[in-house]
Design brief:
The protein has 536 residues and is α/β, with parallel strands linked by helices. Helix content is 45%, strand content 21%. The strands form four sheets. The chain has a seven-stranded mixed β-sheet with strand order 6-5-7-8-9-13-14, with helices on both faces. It is globular.
Amino acid sequence: MKNKNVYCLCLFLSLLLFNSCQTSSEVNTDRKFRIGVLMPESGYIARYGESFLKGIDCFSQTHREYFMGEDQEIELIYYDNQSSNEATIAGCKYLINERDVDFILGPLSSGMTREAIPYCEKAGVPIVPLWATEGELTALSPVAFRIVYSNSHTGYLLSKFSAENLHSKKAAIINDSTAYHQVESSEGFRNGYTELSTGEVKSFDISEGQMNVVRSLAEYKPDVIYLNFANAISENIPLENLIREVEKNDIQAIFLGDTDWSTVDPVELYTNINSEIYYISHHSSESYEESSRIFSSDFREIYGYEPDGLAALGYEALSVVFQFLVNNHDIERDQIVPAFLEGRYDGLLGKIQFNDIGDAFKSAAISRFSTEGSEYITTIKPDIFSVEEFKKEVESLAVAVDIEKQRLSVLELDSLNVDAIETRIVSELIGSSVIKLNSYIVIEAGQRDKIIEEWKNALSGMNEEEMTFEIGKLISARKVISGSIAHSSNRVILNLKLLDIEAGVTLNASFKLYQSFEQLLDNCEYLTYELLSSAL
């Protein structure tokens, strides 16, 4: 907006000339941004489009001052692409030529997105497809951006969880070689597992028959199985049947699923299954990211049920475009694409930014199915950090923070079936790791324990969470690391939480499974820095 004097001068001149002359910059400032929503409201994938549309609607309703009313700054223009390529092309032409949109959200599939990209590129309009996971899709044009994980990246993130959190030594992939997107996901998992693990990984093709695959698995005896043979939404080969057959053959394995598993009813799937099942998604209502919890709460209030991963993706895509527009209100049309690529945005699980070809760097939530529903486990960061890289990231981020607000204490971990000496060693290792950063004032353990001893009677009767926050206040800590170390089924489990005492909230949590106590000790510093860097 021009300053007041310039504005008054323009107004004065317009009155003298009896017309409404305006400069081009004023027109740009006052124009309304338009976002085209190219989604299937009918046709064979309309039921999935409905979830995405509800996520988009949830965001616009909770930001109604921008999207609704006479003074709306951003207009959403919906077009039903009827789940077809022909209607997708017609929708692009309509939104670009007749409605002059600044962005297009959608369509869903990779095939439809391929049809839409040339029209968007010709007009210089950025397109953000919501379910287009094909590998090099965004490399086709500089106007194409992707919020969803690509197929190969989904496989990679699951391999990262398998290698670093589950510490698996034998992984199996069940895929369908007739589906290109499943081949991409399988390759992403294989490449990631080979890079991050010293273990073995083998692929099995479901097209050879379910029982043949089960017999091969019985011989191979994997401890992790990535079920990539069909989308969880597919009804061709029910997941439950295969998992039960694996269990009948006494194959003790943990199962992994991709983002589509977030659309499955966990209680229904888990009715007759005993195995552990984990899946990746774009959010979790139980994650330690406040934005993810706010989204879930808002969605439940509007629709009366918990959002799935597709709704989360629709919400997040509109959120990113919204953040760009409100922060670049005076931007010219030809500058939108390069500026959007360079931006850094707040997502449901932390920061989002794009790589050179327009794919989003973003974290993923890992949840576990159980008889009671879906349980959040941890958040996987996309980058592969060494300990030194984590240290640099924490040190860099901490520079801008008032050092007095960095007073931190590491409480002694709770011990669950673990020797007290071993628990003490891990607690001290975590404390030493924080001290090495030189970014925190770490409260000395002896001082901490003395204060806790003095106040132990007053602390009695509190639950674990209340006690942790109260201890943090007593020792004048701004942040506290707490957690537990447990031994179960030949595995050692380290679970850590980072608490903000002043705000009374949990900032972040990390857990990992180890095959031995020695392996835990080797990884303890890494997990500590991961916990801290994710929260800054």
